[in-house]
Automatic annotation (TrEMBL):
Positions of the catalytic residues: 81 (proton donor)
Species assigned in the record: Pseudoneurospora amorphoporcata
Keyword terms, alphabetized: NADP, Oxidoreductase
Residue ranges occupied by any NADP-dependent oxidoreductase domain in the UniProt entry: 41-302
Name of this protein: NADP-dependent oxidoreductase domain-containing protein
GO MF annotations, alphabetized: oxidoreductase activity, acting on NAD(P)H as acceptor; oxidoreductase activity, acting on the CH-OH group of donors, NAD or NADP as acceptor
Length: 322
């Protein structure tokens, strides 16, 4: 089988990621910092809401600890998940050096809140002095360009403080990113990451608009959440037989093919599995093979035959593929 090392050629900056410890490589961001290309996300199954927000969930702490012990150094959280305290406790209990971890959290910019207030609250819950990546969780809080501009100016000040090593966005479309780039006086720090739902059935290509291509043009790394959607939520579908065929060819699972499809496009990829053996399997199997360019394209082409969006459906028409 092919080595993974030679495959990570497409990224936000044009610089090939370097291999980390012979496992999953890191991606160099436009600000010079590096992000591990496979991360563990604390959304979905570990999400807390309602009365649960007032309690500490030992299962969530255990899930995060399981990922850390399995070898995941990149953990992705958010204030909206309601579990930053649990993530922080898992980090403490792991006893891993902070310098070896890459921690992300996000703000939804609640009404009446400033970004700075939200960030300080997140740091306190996490029990950390800094995060590696801080994101605006979505653009949908802003009712006017000025509100998005104000939020980003606060993000820039947080980066200046050193308490967030990198700053970026999540769930931003081309129009939202362009609004940021149109900020009066220009950007002091452009976003270095756009974390989006990404899988074969949501490739964000509509007519002449291609979100991934736009991000690359602007040196914004793309990070995929819900990369297994075609398997877990949208099956049966046109990519199923391709996944099955490639899984057999490479001696891996269909999920590993789906994750590899993202990685082979230079896209940082998140998994939310709490199964320790599965998590360890990803770290072992994913560096052991790569898809050919034709296989990557075959999956992409088949994916365009179907449209499925798992999140933020209230913000989009059913047929909107942006």
């Amino acid at each position: 089988m092919n080595s993974a090392t030679s495959n990570f050629e497409v990224d936000a900056t044009g610089v090939s990621p370097k291999q980390l410890h012979g496992l999953i490589p890191s991606l160099k961001l436009a600000d010079g910092n590096e992000i591990p290309m496979l991360g563990y996300g604390l959304g979905t199954a570990n999400y807390k809401s309602g009365a649960a927000l007032d309690t500490i969930s030992e299962p969530i702490i255990t899930a995060a600890l399981t990922a850390l012990k399995a070898g995941y150094t990149h953990l992705d959280g958010a204030e909206a998940y309601g579990n930053e305290t649990e993530l922080g406790r898992a980090i403490t209990q792991s006893k891993l050096p902070r310098s070896e971890l890459f921690i992300t959290t996000k703000t939804t910019v609640r009404a009446g809140d400033t970004v700075t207030q939200a960030f300080n609250r997140s740091l306190e819950k996490l029990g950390l002095d800094y995060v590696d990546l801080y994101l605006l969780h979505s653009p949908f809080f802003a009712n006017a360009p000025e509100e998005l501009h104000q939020a980003w100016r606060e993000m820039e000040k947080i980066k200046d403080s050193g308490m967030a090593k990198s700053i970026g966005v999540s769930n931003f479309l081309i129009e939202h990113l362009q609004t940021l780039f149109d900020i009066p006086g220009g950007l002091q720090y452009p976003p270095v990451v756009n974390q989006i739902e990404y899988h074969p059935y949501l490739q964000h290509v509509v007519g002449g608009q291609d979100l991934i291509a736009y991000c690359r043009e602007k040196h914004i790394a793309v990070e995929a959440y819900s990369p297994l959607t075609a398997i877990t939520k949208a099956s049966p579908g046109p990519v199923d037989p391709i996944y099955t065929k490639l899984a057999k060819k490479y001696g891996v699972s269909e999920a590993e093919v789906a994750l590899r499809w993202c990685l082979d496009q230079g896209i940082v990829t998140l998994t939310t599995s709490s199964n320790e053996e599965r998590l360890k399997g990803y770290l072992k199997k994913l560096p052991s093979f790569k898809l050919t360019p034709k296989e990557v394209e075959d999956i992409a082409a088949a994916g365009k035959e179907k449209h499925y969006r798992q999140f933020w459906n209230q913000k989009f028409d059913a047929s909107d593929r942006r």
